[in-house]
Amino acid sequence: MRPFTSRATQPTPAERVLSILTAAHSMTVVSDGHEPVEVHRLDGTAAMGHIHLHEPSTAGSSPAGPRVPVRLEFTDIAPTPARDRTRARVTVTGLLSAPYSTESSESTCMEFGQAVFEDHRGRAFVTLDELQATDPDPLATDEAGMLTHLLDEHAELVPLLLRLTHPQPDKGVTRVLPLAMDRYGVTLRLEYPGTHRDVRLPFAKPVVRLDQAGPQIHALLTAARRASHHSRLLT
Fold first, then answer.
1. pLDDT of residue 208
2. Which of 7, 22, 168, 187 could form a disulfide with 180 if both were Cys (CB 3.0 to 4.6 A apart)?
3. What pLDDT digit, counting tens, does each position of 102-121 carry?
4. Residue 53 predicted with pLDDT over 60
5. pLDDT 10s digits, 149-180
6. Residues 211 and 159 placed together within one structural domain of the fold
């Protein structure tokens, strides 16, 4: 777990992986010698709900019988209609004692190999120790609802947040959308004709409970209004 005293402004790769695994309602399971299996949980439960990750077996402690190499693939999609909605991809590799089946009601044990996190900044490898030492983001499972509510019910407030970006955006922005939210802040996507860029607005302090997110967003909006008022005074 990363201490909050470090004044982090965005999640680590391990935090992103854990959030994606926690919130994902779908994944692709690829096992050697078998067709890929698409897992979709439309009942609100996580796709990983029936898979338990455990430590790699040490020499002499492997279970009897052959094990099946498996790959779990996740795509993190922005809940808002931004251009290029794919925010990240996560691949978790490991071993199963038997081929994965969506028909099984029992938890499937998966011997963890590694997790690979990929986004526009590059690729990072995440270990099981890092995942186990990471606290779940309190906003992970509610992020989609919060972002869509902000856009659907308070869309006029989103461009106001641009007052907090430094440097100020280039002219020609055609649309501003909330792209992501986590315990450390909000990411906005600024769309231009033919291109886009993302800006990060950190919260004053990381959120540790879901009910703290609203006040932090209101604090950003208050700061943006003050910046707008100050700008008018200077003109």
1. 96
2. 187
3. 777 778 889 999 999 999 99
4. yes
5. 999 999 999 999 999 988 888 888 999 999 99
6. yes
Count up the domains in the chain and report the number. Answer: 2
Phi and psi torsions of 160, nearest 5° = -60, -30
Q: Name the amino acid, one letter, at 52.
A: H
Phi, psi of 77 (to 5 degrees): -110, 135
- What is the span of the domain harbouring residue 89? 4-132
Residue 23 identity: A
Q: Does any domain span residue 46?
A: yes
Which pLDDT score is estimated for 67?
85
CB half-sphere exposure, 31, CA atoms < 13 A: 14
Kindly state whether residue 183 falls inside one of the protein's structural domains: yes
**Is residue 51 domain-shared with residue 152, that is, in the same domain?**
no
For residue 175, how far is the Cα from the chain centroid? 22
In a domain, 137, yes or no: no
C-alpha pair distances (Å), 233 with each of 171, 220, 230: 21, 20, 5
Render 8-77 in DSSP notation, one character per residue.
--S--HHHHHHHHHHH-SEEEEEETTS--EEEE-TTS--GGGGEEEEPPPPTT-PPSS--EEEEEEEEEE
Residues 63 and 89 placed together within one structural domain of the fold: yes
